[in-house]
Amino acid sequence: MKSRMNLRFLVITAVFIAIAIVLRPFAITVAAGGILTMRISFDAICYTAPGLIFGPLYGGIAGGLIDVFGYMMKPMGGYIPLFTITNIIAGILPAVLWRIIRNKSNYKIRNYYSIFFILLFLIGFINFIIIKFMSNTTLNRLFMFLGKKSQYFSYGFMLIGIIGILILLINLFINKNSAKFYSFINNYYFKMVIVLGISGIFICTINTYILLIFTPALIAKGFMLLWIPRIVETLLMTAINSYIVCIILYSYNLFYSRVVKKA
Predict the structure, then answer these.
(1) Which burial class, exposed, middle or buried, applies to 70 when counting CB atoms under 10 A from its CB (0-12, 13-18, 19+)?
(2) CA-to-CA distance for 75 and 70, rounded, in angstroms?
(3) Phi/psi at 39 (nearest 5 deg)?
(4) Engineering a disulfide at 224: which of 67, 78, 132, 152 sits with its beta carbon 3.0 to 4.6 angstroms away?
């Protein structure tokens, strides 16, 4: 029985990998210095879903193989093994976080989430005000230790805060529909956003450092100038991917429960 389950897990994981490879050519890519700096695609769904459904091992396998096969099909610049490692982590981490958070209270999670992103926005806004209108103050000199591009922290924090709040509003909109399908989405969407968001921010930050290491031309522009657009893209895709992954989980649970009943 266990071997059958493992085989089923592997087959479905292979299907997700195949889907990711098929969709790879349709991704929107941005390159700098011959190195891929940003990819807007739905790859993450195809290694996140197996991890959430079957466990971290399958997410890691999917993440690693999707990166390797994707590069083989459409190489851009030199192959960087560190990206494969971070993609494996990107498949494992959401599954681990999901096991921790999925049974937590939605109410508490929503409150903590709201406080975090509101504070993030306020920090960015206060930083912006101080740098822009209080240039001769001690506070401004304190913030300027980040250098001439310190204002990017302000813009980045405000953008991330706004996106986080927008995601919260999307969740509140979903809550209004009481159908069975939406009830499932409501129970898991917000938690999924947090799981994929934490994982996405972590992986995006690590990958940005890797890009700077392997692309000397980008070092002059600084970490924040590269990180902010990447993190904004990550959070926006998190909102979309979380919804799609919830649909996949709902569909799988519905299908599997029917199969079990028939058996």
Answers:
(1) buried
(2) 8
(3) -130, 125
(4) 152
**Alpha-carbon distance 160 to 152, whole Å?**
12
Residue 93 has pLDDT above 90, yes or no: yes
As a whole number, the mean pLDDT across the chain is 78
Any alpha helices (H) in 176-219, and if so which ranges?
180-214, 216-219
CA–CA dist 43, 24 (Å, integer): 7
Per-residue model confidence (pLDDT) at position 17: 94
pLDDT band at residue 80 using 50, 70 and 90 as cut-offs: confident
Torsion 167-97-245-247 (CA) sign = negative
Task: Tell which residue, 48, 177, 200, 192, has the closest CA to residue 113.
Answer: 192
SS3 174: helix
Token pair 């450092």: residue: 209
Identify the three-state secondary structure at position 41. Answer: coil
Q: What pLDDT was estimated at residue 31?
A: 62
The pTM is what? 0.77
